[in-house]
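hi support,

uploading two proteins for the ticket. first:
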Amino acid sequence: MTDWEGSQAIQGALRDANRQFPPSANRMLDVATCCIKFSKEYKLVVHELERFIRKAPNVQLKVSGVFAIDVTLYNARKKFGKREDSNKLTKRMGEKLAGIMAHVNVADLNGEEHRLLSKVLAGWIAREYFPESVNQCF
């Protein structure tokens, strides 16, 4: 895939956010802001987040990638609303979520990482980001 304008910006924001674990809320907000800025290219934004998780060398970075998805979904809903037709980013993320979560090996998580990931996934279910069929993948 060729580089596009938002690729370097999203990758840079993800790198900055993941200097420590767990990443700071402000740095994760920077990632979400960057993703929403390029939301017209929602397919490429989802691909960048998926690629980060897929290529992450350790489980902490993979979990941080899921945090980035979480904060992006939250802020996308705040900006675009709950309707699926106005929030293509969330809809696309739901379509790709099973493949994305397949890269996060739950068996490799320690207690703290598992607790944090469970909290994020429970929040997705509570906020009804995705249909029930998508929620089954986790």
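and the second one:
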Amino acid sequence: MVAPNGSPLPSFLREAKQQVVSRARRDRDGAFWSLSPAYRPHAEIFESSLGFGTAGILLSLLEIHQIEPDKETELLLMDGTKWLVAQLEKRGFQHGFYTGSAGVWYTLAKLESHLSGISPEWRKIMREQLRALSLQD
């Protein structure tokens, strides 16, 4: 379906994309999206998560990018990927899919399969975390 302006992206998705892009924050690790003030005390758990944080936002942004690619979004996706990898290293393994490491790994796998230039470094970190987890048994 093509929007009236000739774009394959409907106007509500274009507006959503603009909101997401404008709310991106950056630090030395890359791009991320901060939680609302009510959830900031739980940032350690939620800020990188698939269910509430940057991983979920990156997946949504990737879907929009696949419909209508542009360089700005691609760079933001790459910077968000760098941030997620840094969080894996800093925070270590966290149980769960929506609030844990598995959701972040899933997101990184999706990003890696659709974007070129993503370092496979995250796979090494994932293997190390799983190995350490198996040694705890």
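thanks. also noticed: The beta strands are 25-27, 30-32.
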